[in-house]
From TrEMBL:
Residues in ANK repeats: 1-26, 27-61, 62-94, 95-129, 130-162, 163-197, 198-230
Protein name: Protein fem-1 homolog B
Any one of the GO CC terms: cytoplasm
Source organism (scientific name): Diaphorina citri
Gene3D superfamilies on file: Ankyrin repeat-containing domain
InterPro entries found in the cross-reference section: Ankyrin_rpt (IPR002110), Ankyrin_rpt-contain_sf (IPR036770)
Family of the protein in this entry: Belongs to the fem-1 family.
Stretches assigned to coiled coil: none
Family annotation (Pfam families): Ank, Ank_2
Domain of life: Eukaryota
Record gene name: LOC103510799
């Protein structure tokens, strides 16, 4: 409870009087995990626990770790401290999500965390059970800053998920606010005509959402108007049907 509330004075007192750092709850959460997950104001508690011997890589029932919790909350200070004290960047949870994936998926405010993870050696192309990647997560959220950074640091534009959706498809399908992401992907070499398992394309996705700006851009950059999906529907049919 003291770790949960960030009560450093109580944490120190209890440790000095024999409190066991490694007792876990029914979710297998350690005291360190609780302190990391709560975020704001708890770095001092985390430092105290680590100094007293807490395992920085202890994982929960869902294979989450203190580092993953800090990445989820965008706590750069905690992320840096845990990495400096041996936190494993590559432990994944039950969905095979890496710490980098968690930081990218959360979107706003996490670019600094992503930079720290990549600098420390995180795999920018690690994929989840559904073959999603940090770049795909950033494209989904329309985070141009993260998209640019990941591409500059080796992210593969052409890794597809279990539906064979490319990063460009994800950016086009989401619609509003993602034209800048689409331009960045195309400029970096993304295939404008890559099709999914149902033979859908980025152009079809933009037609479905009525995004004229994206439709124009994709056509100007070589999108094929005549590719049809598994129902033999053309882009024009999709636009008319909507």
């Amino acid at each position: 409870m003291a770790c949960y509330d960030g009560r450093l004075d109580i944490v120190k007192y209890l440790i000095e009087h024999g409190a066991d750092l490694n007792i876990t709850n029914h979710y297998n959460n350690s005291c360190l995990m609780i302190a990391a997950y709560k975020g704001a104001g708890h770095l001092s508690v985390i430092k105290t626990l680590v100094h007293a011997g807490a395992d920085v890589n202890h994982s929960t029932k869902t294979q989450s770790t203190p580092l993953r919790a800090a990445c989820y909350d965008g706590r750069l200070d905690i992320v840096k401290y845990l990495i400096e004290h041996g936190a494993d960047l590559n432990i994944t949870n039950h969905y095979n999500n890496s710490c980098l994936m968690i930081a990218a998926y959360k979107g706003a405010g996490h670019l600094s965390v992503i930079k720290t993870l990549v600098h420390a050696g995180a795999d920018v192309n690690h994929s989840t059970k559904t073959q999603s990647t940090p770049l795909r997560a950033a494209c989904y959220d329309g985070r141009l800053d993260i998209v640019k950074y990941l591409i500059e640091h080796g992210a593969d534009l052409n890794i597809t998920n279990h539906y064979n959706n490319s990063c460009l498809m994800i950016a086009a399908y989401k619609g509003a606010g993602h034209l800048s992401v689409i331009k960045t992907l195309v400029h970096a070499g993304a295939d404008v005509n890559h099709s999914t398992k149902t033979q859908s394309t980025p152009l079809r996705a933009a037609c479905y959402d009525g995004r004229l700006d994206i439709v124009k851009y994709l056509i100007e950059h070589g999108a094929d108007l005549n590719i049809t999906n598994h129902y033999n529907n053309s882009c024009l049919m999709i636009a008319a049907y909507k």
